[in-house]
Each structure stands twice: as structure tokens, then as C-alpha cells.
């Protein structure tokens, strides 16, 4: 937004002891995404694979029209806008169809966070178990990467944005070819003052996940992609296949802690 992209008109309000400086999700789209997940028998913290085929053609068309209506409502005729909600990781193909039909050129900033920090954050905020947090992180990361492959995109980490702001922002501008933005000294100073380290409530402590190799390999692949531009796609594809096989082997019917542990135990044998 500080580089010139329009924000949604109706943002989610700030939350004490969580996101005191505010959220950046459009509230109405966030609510729609939650309704869509419920209709699919899922939830934002469901780490299981989501099959969009569960929607009938009529319901899929309805959701597409609602998403399009809300995008037009939130951004109007803005020539450049930014749309953020982690739940979009589960709906990327749907959004690609909608935005393509709207004639919108889409570019992706895939911002990951250290899985241990995410785990700590979810435990404090939601009481989520370690096993479930790890699989949530993995599912969102794998789906976001897979569905944006062969698209214009830039990998970033939350931690790198805080510690190496100027270089990461300049690389973001270059990678996404954001020709309409201006990266002046004043703009960079404002960006740095907005990326406040005191709002980073949970940090990674210790090793990534030495007992769960999928997480470590995925996180290191994302870090390498951010630093070099090269992504170990084959490794992520292998993990995705193993994840799917482990789900089948564990015969999970829910996304409880017990099911998560069963999937992880099955994964260790694959």
C-alpha cells in the first residue's frame, strides 16, 4: 500500500494483543471465505486437502459472482490494488478464473513465516496443538506454491522483511515489475517505520522441526527461493504427494490433534 497499491475500503479492525496496528484483509471477503469453507465442511485451521469439486456448479457460480462483486466494491477502478487473506491459499484456482475474467493482471507475493513462530502464535491465539499448527502451515504453503507455479511471483519471509527491509522491498518491486510504484527515500522510511519489530509477538526458538522433515525441507526451500530465486519444486512436489498418501493411510476423518499426529506418524514411514 505504501508503494502505491490501493487497500480494500472495508478492512478488518485491529485486535488487542494480536494485530494492534490493524489487519489488512478485506472484512467482507474474509467473511465470505469463512462461509465457503464451512459450506465445504472445512475451516481456516483445517489442514486437510480441500476439494473445490465439493461445490455444485450452481454454488460455485454463486461464490464466483460474490467474490467478483466484493472485489469491485472494495477496490473500484483502482489501477493497482493489493488483496490479502491467508484463506486465499485454499481458493487460488477460483480467484485465477475470476480475476482473469475481470481482465486483472495478477502477481503474487508469497510471504512465509518461520513455522515455529507460526506454531507459537497459533498456540497463544487459538490454543492450537503443535501437530495441527505444523500441518496447517504446511498445507497453506504447499497449496499457495503449487497453484501459483508458472505465474509472476516473489517469495518473501516475514522475518526478512523486518531485518532486511530495503533489499526485500526493492526485490519485490523488481520481481513483480511494479512499474507504477515509486520507491523514494521518504517511502522507504515510512515502510521501515511501519514494519515494527515490537509487533512481532512470537518468534522462532530452536530448530525448525527436527522430528518432522517435511516442515524443515519446505521452509528451507522457501528461504532458498527468496534468496536465490531458485525453488526446489521437485522436493515440494514429493512432500505434497507424501502428505496426500499419509492422509489416506491414516484414514483421517477430521482435523483434530489425534488425526494430525496419525498423519505425521504415517508420513514418517513414507
Structural notes for this entry:
By secondary structure, the protein is mainly alpha-helical. It has 11 helices and 2 strands. The protein has a two-stranded parallel ribbon with strand order 1-2. Helix 2 crosses helix 3 and helix 5 (130-147) packs across helix 11 (257-268).
Keyword list:
single chain, 270 residues, mainly alpha, two-stranded parallel sheet, 11 helices, 54% helix, 4% strand
Strand-pairing-aware structural class: mainly alpha
Q: Give the averaged pLDDT, no decimals.
A: 89
Number of strands: 2
Could you describe the largest sheet, including whether it forms a barrel? 2 strands, parallel
Radius of gyration: 19 Å
The oligomeric state of the chains shown is single chain
Q: What would you say about this model in short?
A:
With 270 residues, the chain is mostly helical. It has helices at residues 27-39, 57-75, 92-101, 115-126, 130-147, 158-163, 165-175, 185-194, 213-228, 233-250, 257-268, and strands at residues 108-112, 153-157. Helix 10 packs across helix 11.
Layout of strands and helices, then pairs:
Elements: H1 27-39, H2 57-75, H3 92-101, E1 108-112, H4 115-126, H5 130-147, E2 153-157, H6 158-163, H7 165-175, H8 185-194, H9 213-228, H10 233-250, H11 257-268
Amino acid at each position: 500500500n505504501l508503494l502505491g497499491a490501493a487497500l480494500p475500503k472495508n478492512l478488518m479492525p485491529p485486535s488487542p494483543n494480536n494485530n494492534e496496528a490493524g489487519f489488512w484483509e478485506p472484512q467482507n471477503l474474509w467473511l465470505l471465505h469463512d462461509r465457503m469453507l464451512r459450506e465445504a465442511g472445512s475451516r481456516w485451521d483445517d489442514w486437510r486437502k480441500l476439494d473445490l469439486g465439493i461445490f455444485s456448479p450452481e454454488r460455485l457460480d454463486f461464490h464466483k459472482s460474490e467474490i467478483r462483486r466484493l472485489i469491485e466494491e472494495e477496490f473500484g477502478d483502482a489501477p493497482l490494488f493489493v488483496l490479502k487473506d491467508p484463506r486465499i491459499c485454499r481458493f487460488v484456482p477460483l480467484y485465477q478464473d475470476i480475476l482473469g475474467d475481470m481482465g486483472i493482471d495478477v502477481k503474487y507475493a508469497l510471504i512465509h513465516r518461520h513455522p515455529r513462530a507460526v506454531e507459537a502464535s497459533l498456540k497463544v491465539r487459538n490454543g492450537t496443538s503443535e501437530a495441527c499448527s505444523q500441518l496447517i502451515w504446511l498445507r497453506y504453503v504447499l497449496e499457495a506454491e503449487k497453484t501459483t507455479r508458472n505465474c509472476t511471483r516473489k517469495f518473501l519471509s516475514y522475518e526478512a522483511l523486518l531485518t532486511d527491509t530495503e533489499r526485500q522491498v526493492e526485490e519485490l518491486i523488481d520481481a513483480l515489475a511494479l512499474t507504477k510504484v515509486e520507491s523514494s527515500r521518504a517511502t522507504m522510511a515510512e515502510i521501515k517505520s511501519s514494519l515494527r519489530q515490537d509487533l512481532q509477538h512470537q518468534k522462532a526458538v530452536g530448530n525448525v522441526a527436527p522430528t518432522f522433515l517435511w516442515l524443515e525441507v519446505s521452509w528451507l526451500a522457501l528461504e532458498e527461493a527468496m534468496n536465490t530465486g531458485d525453488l526446489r519444486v521437485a522436493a515440494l512436489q514429493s512432500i505434497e504427494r507424501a502428505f496426500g498418501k499419509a492422509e489416506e493411510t491414516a484414514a483421517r476423518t477430521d482435523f483434530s490433534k489425534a488425526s494430525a499426529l496419525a498423519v505425521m506418524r504415517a508420513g514418517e514411514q513414507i
